[in-house]
Design a protein that fits this description.
alpha/beta; TIM Barrel; 2 domains; nine-stranded mixed sheet; 11 helices; about 40% helix
Length: about 325
C-alpha cells in the first residue's frame, strides 16, 4: 500500500487507571502499568485533525493538561474530545479550568447508560447517575460549549435509550450512541454479546426517526450511523468499507499503535521509532495495512471517515428515509 498521507484521526487511551467498574469493560481490572511519557506524543504527525482522549478515566492522568497543550502546539486547529465517565466531578472541574484557556473549544463526552440506578448498575458505581448530573452542571457553569451525552447499548439497558436521548435534548447536549463490543487487547473482554436484536431495532427506529425530523445535517448523519449500527448488529457486516489504520489509529496507554480500539493487530510502539511516519511505514505496520479486513466493526472512530468517503451514499439514504420513512 502506497503511503500518501498519515492518519488524521487518533484515539488515545491516556491511562488504564479507572474509577468505574463497567460490566462491559475490564480495563478497571488492569494492573497498574507505566503510561507513555508525554515526550513521546511529540512524535504524532502535525496533520492530526481529531483526537479522542479516553482511558480508563482520562482525567485521572496527572499531566492531561500538558498533553492537551502539546496536541494544540502540533496543530492549533485540532478537534479534541475528552471521553469521561464523569464521576470525579471536582477533579474534572480543576482540570478543565486549566484546559479551557488552552483549548476553549474542547469537547467533553460523558457516558450515561440509563437513568438513575440503571446507570449505576451498568457502571458499577453506587450514586453514579448523580455524579454524572453534578459534573454536567459544573461543565455548563464553566462554559464548556460542546457537551456530548454518550450512550452505550447492551441487552441490559437498550430500553433506556429513549430516556437518555430525551434527557440529552432537555440538557441541550449532543447525543451519541455505541453498542457494546469486544477488544481483547484493550477492553480485555471477549464475551460481550447482543441477542435482543428486535428490541434494538425498535429503540433505534425511534431514535432514527427523531433525528431525521430535525433540519440539522449532524443529526441526519447520526441517524445514518445508528441505522448502519443496527445493520451491523444484525449481519456482522459494515454497510461501508473500513479504513482503520488508513484514516484513523488507536494508541493505548503503553504507546502501542493499532488500527482501531477493537483491533488486535499491533502496528508498532511509538517508543521504538523516531516519529510516527517511521512507525507507519515500518514493515510490521505495512503488513497490517495489507490485511483485507482489520476486524469487522461499526464504531464512531472508524465509521466517521467511511461516511465522509462515501458521502453520496449516506446523503442518498438520508433523503430516501426522510421522504419515504424509516424502514428497518
Amino acid at each position: 500500500m502506497a503511503i500518501n498521507k498519515l492518519p488524521s484521526d487518533i484515539v488515545i487511551a491516556v491511562t488504564y487507571i479507572c474509577n468505574s467498574k463497567c460490566r462491559m469493560c475490564n480495563i478497571w481490572k488492569t494492573e497498574k502499568l507505566p503510561v507513555l511519557a508525554l515526550e513521546e506524543y511529540k512524535k504524532l504527525p502535525k496533520t492530526i485533525r481529531e483526537v479522542n482522549l479516553t482511558g480508563g478515566e482520562p482525567f485521572l492522568r496527572p499531566d492531561l493538561v500538558e498533553l492537551i497543550k502539546l496536541l494544540v502546539e502540533l496543530n492549533p486547529k485540532v478537534r479534541i474530545i475528552i471521553s469521561t465517565n464523569g464521576f470525579a466531578s471536582e477533579l474534572i472541574k480543576q482540570r478543565l479550568m486549566e484546559i479551557l484557556p488552552i483549548k476553549p473549544d474542547i469537547i467533553v463526552g460523558i457516558s450515561l447508560d440509563g437513568i438513575g440506578e440503571i446507570h449505576d448498575q451498568v457502571r458499577g458505581i453506587p450514586g453514579g447517575f448523580e455524579k454524572v448530573m453534578a459534573t454536567i452542571k459544573i461543565l455548563k457553569e464553566l462554559g464548556v460549549k460542546d457537551l456530548h451525552l454518550a450512550f452505550t447499548a447492551g441487552d441490559y439497558n437498550i430500553n433506556e435509550l429513549p430516556k437518555v436521548y430525551q434527557l440529552s435534548r432537555q440538557l441541550g447536549m449532543e447525543f451519541t450512541i455505541a453498542a457494546i463490543h469486544n477488544a481483547e487487547s484493550y477492553f480485555n473482554t471477549v464475551d460481550n454479546k447482543i441477542t435482543e436484536i428486535n428490541e434494538f431495532k425498535k429503540e433505534f427506529k425511534g431514535l432514527i426517526k427523531a433525528e431525521l425530523k430535525i433540519w440539522d445535517l449532524k443529526r441526519w448523519l447520526r441517524a445514518y450511523f445508528a441505522y448502519a449500527l443496527i445493520k451491523f448488529l444484525e449481519t456482522g457486516k459494515r454497510l461501508l468499507p473500513d479504513y482503520s489504520g488508513i484514516d484513523n489509529v488507536f494508541i493505548d496507554p503503553l504507546g502501542n499503535v493499532y488500527p482501531a480500539t477493537i483491533s488486535g493487530y499491533l502496528m508498532g510502539n511509538l517508543k521504538d521509532f523516531k516519529d510516527f511516519r517511521e512507525l507507519y511505514t515500518s514493515e510490521k505496520a505495512q503488513q497490517v495495512l495489507k490485511l483485507e479486513e482489520i476486524e469487522q466493526n461499526w464504531i464512531i472512530c472508524t465509521a466517521r471517515s467511511a461516511m465522509k468517503r462515501h458521502a453520496f451514499a449516506v446523503l442518498f439514504w438520508i433523503l430516501k428515509n426522510k421522504i419515504l420513512g424509516v424502514n428497518l
